[in-house]
Design brief:
The complex is a heterotrimer. By secondary structure, chain A is mostly helical. Chain A has 17 helices and no strands. Classes of the chains: A mainly alpha, B alpha+beta, C mainly alpha. Chains A and B meet through helix 6, helix 8, helix 9, helix 10 and helix 13 of A and helix 1, strand 7, strand 9 and strand 10 of B. Chain A: One of its GO terms (cellular component) is membrane.
């Protein structure tokens, strides 16, 4: 397998995405800390800052900015490493970076001045300042530019390597970007065509349910867009770190194809308690949602099998000897491993959330917040951290020293402890009916509310521990970027076994897989969309005052 | 493509579990009628009184038959209108006997809201232009907080009520 | 080639099977626990 060395120019591009990532981590993390403190009831925000301003900042900065920048930077590096990048493509990489950054700054400006306290879901008919929507649109457009560059990179490589199968990681990046483009078309349409003209006053009313449906058409693949880079690392990087080989190239590709097909036609499972969608179509999308569990079941097996095969090849013969001898002291392994473990309750919770009528038990309760703090804020983010420990020094020509490795392990433990406390208490409070997305409130008082508040206090404890973890992570990042000793840090890419089974050609038939993906989307959405438009009520005029705009 | 025999065992087990979940919730939904709320009934958000249920005098709790109740409500930022008490003050608590069947009907005059009787399965999105409706048997005694669980603006957390089952 | 395939076929993955089965049981227990709570309300 041929791996490309990064030029200085290339490394600079990839690093620029990482700077934004870790600035976002600090800013967004601070907002998270403040939220948990406010919700404990023991602390009020200074300078008349509104709770929902920091909540919007937290969601947008961590959910949209940190993730998108990290993913696109990391994926560029994967493409550069496995299929190479031309000067022209680097130039377009910079265009995508700047378009996204300008969009981010515009959106952040509006949020921080209180003109866009609409949370990261920006549900109409709450109306933010038009510049907020323009900013969001730019972030998406910038990400499309990156996608086109990635597609071009693979295309150029394929032309030069006729008849060869594409490198696994390049294949995976392409899958993720295809999914992202197909999904974000929905939200882009909603933002640019439906919401922006309405926010400017050119159109009087907006179809609320339509904008929500388009958001969730995008919103669920969004979480898979976050998750797939973690899966890339689990399938194709972790094996190298633990001294093994790929378990199966074909199965890895198959699971990514299934993720592409079933990530999108499932948005209704976020809208199960909506009044305006036919319950039969909700149920159909519930079934499709359950289909997307299958590639994850395959992934779980692959990961354990990689560990076991590697351990057994090293000579550990007992039933769990391979497990005991995993490189627990290597943070490049430990952090993603904890992420995998968190995905067990995270995934189980996800199946519960999607279970049609059972969703009423947890919908919009803080259980959901607890759920995605396991999935995105533990599984995904700890894997991203695990990647950063080698990616950053690889890009800056430095080394992950034993001391930094140790700090990383401490960071991972802090995160695990903080998140266990915070997420568990969120799950329990949610089952007791405590709502998410809410400032501190005693409501009508009574025992029920008192119980909620006691859990909010433990969330503040967990949140504080997590913030310590964030500060430590940012410190490690700064060390790796600027101060660690110069040297060479490996970019770990796992190889196939010499005698590995040949990967079937059909797995690279893009027309087929994208065709099925589109067919599934049309199946799941056409009729309910026609229903939504045909049965639409009078549209909604914009509302500014509820979010404190005058 | 080759699957290890244990992977086949695992996938059969996993797919079987998923199928089992789907059969249970599908049976409950289609045969027992416990779908999540969806009535696809629309209304003009700027004129909710056009619908009889949401005229001011019809808001709040009504006993329609022995042990059967209807509660009509209008949500707006940042308040639930549960109708008025006999003395003219706004109703904040809805009291129903244990075991009664209650149909909750609600719509929004402005933005998106939530309506959850926390601690029960009554949990609905409330959207302008749509009527949300859910019938529940109040099985357990207690005071349940009604919370708006979808962000509706800076007073979102001040939007609440109480359902008391006695 | 045939012999190589043979070794793959027989790869000892007993530990893996136990691990994923534990995971599967966790999913079942979680789901039925929550479903029970749903029915009780």
């Amino acid at each position: 397998m041929e791996l490309f060395n990064f030029s200085k120019k290339e490394s600079r591009l990839y690093m620029s995405f990482m700077y934004v990532t870790f600035v976002s981590l600090l800013v967004g993390g601070l907002m998270g800390l403040l939220q948990t403190l406010v919700r404990s009831g023991k602390y009020t925000l200074p300078f008349n800052i509104d709770y929902y301003t920091i909540l919007t900042t937290h969601g947008v900065v961590l959910g949209l900015v940190l993730t998108t920048f990290f993913i696109i930077g990391f994926q560029f590096s994967l493409m550069g490493k496995t299929v190479g990048i031309s000067d022209k493509q680097i130039m377009w990489g910079w265009v995508s970076f700047w378009v996204m950054l300008v969009g981010t700054v515009l959106a952040a400006w509006m949020i921080l001045t209180g003109e866009a306290s609409v949370l990261y879901t920006f549900y109409t008919p709450l109306r933010a300042h038009p510049i907020f929507y323009i900013g969001l649109a730019l972030v998406i457009i910038g990400s499309w530019i990156a996608a086109i560059v990635n597609f071009r990179q693979l295309y150029v490589w394929k032309k030069a390597h006729k008849g060869e199968k594409s490198p696994l990681l390049a294949f995976m990046v392409t899958i993720n970007m295809v999914m992202w483009v197909v999904a974000s078309l929905g939200v882009a349409y909603s933002v640019v065509v439906l919401i922006l003209p309405w926010s400017l006053g050119y159109v009087a009313t907006v179809n609320v349910l339509l904008t929500r449906t388009l958001f969730w058409y995008f919103g669920h693949p969004l979480v898979y867009f976050w998750l797939l880079p973690a899966y890339m690392a689990w399938y194709a990087i972790i094996p190298k770190i633990i001294g093994g080989k790929l378990f199966s190239d074909s199965l890895a590709r198959l699971s990514f194809i299934l993720l592409l097909m079933f990530s999108i036609p499932v948005g209704f499972h976020h809208q199960l308690t909506e009044p305006g969608i036919d319950p039969t179509w909700k149920f159909i999308q519930v079934v499709l949602t359950f289909m997307v569990v299958i590639p994850t079941l395959m992934t779980a097996f692959s990961i354990f099998a990689t560990f076991e095969t590697t351990g057994r090849n090293k000579g550990y013969k007992s039933l769990f000897g391979w497990f005991r001898h995993l490189p627990w002291k290597d943070v490049r392994f430990l952090a993603p491993f904890i992420g995998m473990v968190a995905f067990i309750p995270g995934g189980a919770g996800g199946i519960i959330n999607a279970s049609h009528q059972v969703n009423a038990l947890v919908h919009n309760t803080i259980w959901v917040t607890g759920h995605f703090h396991l999935t995105i804020a533990t599984t995904v983010i700890l894997t991203y951290f695990g990647i950063a420990y080698w990616l950053i020094p690889h890009l800056t020509g430095r080394r992950l020293t034993p001391k930094l490795n140790k700090l990383g392990i401490i960071q991972t433990i802090i995160w695990t402890v903080g998140m266990t406390i915070m997420s568990t208490s969120m799950h329990i409070q949610g089952l007791l009916g405590g709502p998410r997305r809410s400032n501190f409130s005693e409501y009508a008082g009574g025992d029920q509310v008192a119980t909620w508040i006691s859990y909010q206090i433990s969330q503040a404890v967990g949140g504080t521990i997590l913030f310590v973890g964030i500060v430590l992570m940012v410190y490690i990042f700064i060390q790796l970027a600027f101060f660690a000793p110069r040297g060479y840090e490996e970019y770990p890419v796992a190889e196939e076994d010499m005698d590995a089974e040949k990967t079937p050609k059909i797995l690279e038939n893009w027309y087929l897989w994208i065709g099925i993906t589109i067919a599934l989307i049309l199946f799941a959405y056409t009729i309910p969309m026609i229903d939504i438009i045909k049965h639409s009520p009078p549209g909604s005029i914009p509302f500014d005052w509820p979010i404190g705009r005058s | 493509m080759h699957l290890h025999k244990y992977e086949k065992v695992w996938l059969v087990f996993g797919l079987g579990s998923l199928a089992l979940f789907l059969i249970i919730i599908g049976f409950a939904a289609f045969w027992k009628g416990t779908h999540p709320q969806s009535h696809i009934e629309t209304i003009d958000p700027q004129n909710v009184e056009a619908n009889e249920a949401f005229q001011p005098e019809n808001l709040g709790l009504t006993e329609v038959a022995e042990g059967k109740y209807v509660v009509n409500m209008v949500a707006s930022a940042f308040n639930y209108d549960f109708g008025k008490e006999e003395d003219g003050s706004a109703t904040k608590t809805i009291r129903v006997p244990k075991g009664s069947t209650v149909l909750f009907q609600i719509t929004s005059k402005d933005v998106v809201h939530g309506f959850q009787v926390a601690g029960t399965n009554v949990n609905m999105m409330v959207e302008p232009g749509h009527i949300s409706r859910f019938e529940a048997v109040m099985k357990n005694n207690g005071e349940f907080t009604v919370v708006c669980n979808e962000y509706c603006g800076i007073g979102h957390h001040l939007m609440f009520g109480t359902v008391e089952v006695y | 080639m045939a012999s190589a395939k043979q070794t793959k076929e027989d790869a000892n993955l007993k530990g893996t099977l136990i691990m994923v089965m534990i995971l599967g049981v966790i999913i079942l227990v979680f789901w039925f626990g929550i479903y029970g709570l749903f029915l009780s309300r």
